[in-house]
Amino acid sequence: MLDFIPFDPGVINDDGHIYLYYGWALPVKPAKSRMVDKIYRKIMHGMFPKKTMEEIYSSAPGIMGANMVELEDDMLTVKQPPKRIIPCEMDAKGTSFEGHAFFEGSSIRKVNGMYYLIYSSSVNHELCYAVSQYPDRGFEYGGVIISNGDIGVNGRKSKDRVAATGNNHGSIEQINGIWYIFYHRHTHLTSNSRQGCAEKIRIEKDGSIRQVCMTSCGLNRGPLAARGTYPASIACNLTDGRMPHVGNGKCRKKKPCIVEENGKQYITGIHNHTLIGYKYFE
After folding, report:
1. Beta bridge partners of 19
2. Can you point out the beta strands (E) in 164-227?
3. DSSP 231
4. Span 108-152, pLDDT tens digits
5. For the chain, is the Cβ count within 10 Å smaller at the N or the C terminus?
6. Contact at 8 Å (CB) between 187 and 245?
7. The pTM is what?
8. Contact at 8 Å (CB) between 142 and 109?
9. Is 37 exposed, middle or buried (0-12, 13-18, 19+ CB in 10 A)?
10. What's the CA gap between 114 and 39, in Å, rounded?
11. Computed over its alpha carbons, how large is the radius of gyration of the chain?
């Protein structure tokens, strides 16, 4: 199991078979840059201090990507060696995952006899899904379910993101007959401050899931009632037209953002051309 990076695990009990999914990857494409290679070597050796770089490089199919193992009933013993099921971006060229390869955050679901692996992609701000009729092989890229900047919705480009974007984690779940995608947006212009959110999704008859946009509705079954008072922090769109991608870090520029102080959440950094949007009200 330690041939790969044991990170962000997800587990499913599939009719008595216990499957564990896990993995991590650098969200970068192959590069001939010496600097990228140096960073790669430093990170990998830090994760595998007992392996030489030659051993790390010669590992097949590579130490980065999404993997699965079947566990014994004790939930500790691995029945067989791990299997690679989704490649990292470095290995995704020519596959259905190219451009949306695995980064981290494995979460497995079984829906209508099919296995859905929800994961954070190499793009960083989106949750994608892969689907297979088998738990340990045959996964193909399905698409984006949510982006915490609505990038991709109606063809929206990265430069037109409707909020600051950063890493994203979550999964799908059915509640009272309705499917939702649980994910997070960001506050304080940092990837380490995360606002838990949920959006309704639909699993089509063919098994596909169409990307949904961010809203302010959460687990509400429909539009919010047009009465009373709502917190400013449920804004789903917050942009000045040039919002940053904070990735796994922090933006120090003055930009509109949600912050918290003394237990109260509010929006700050508002200036000319700032748009604060809420979807949807009756």
Report:
1. 12, 70
2. 165-166, 171-175, 178-186, 194-201
3. -
4. 999 999 999 999 999 999 999 999 999 999 999 999 999 999 999
5. C
6. no
7. 0.92
8. no
9. exposed
10. 38
11. 20
